[in-house]
Amino acid sequence: MSRRESCERAPKISIFEFEPSDYADAYAANGYVHIPGGASPEFMRYALHFAKTSLDAEADAGLCAWQITGKKQQFLMEFPENSDFPEGLHRSVETVAGLDVDRVTLSERHIKIYDLHAAASPPPHKGRMASEVTVGIGLRIPEASRVVLYPDRDRAMNLHQSTKEWRDSLDEADLPENALEGTEPVEIDMRDGDVVMFAGNSICHERTRPAGAWLLYMKLNAMRLDPICEDPRTRPQRKLSLELLHARSDSELLDTEIEISPRLEKVSRNYTRMSWKEIVQGHIAGEKPFGLSETEFTALRVLEDRRISVRELIARMGYPRETAAAFAPMLRRLIEVGAMDLLGPGC
Ligand SMILES: O=C(O)CCC(=O)C(=O)O
Question: 275 C-alpha vs ligand 1 centroid, how far in Å?
Answer without folding.
Answer: 45
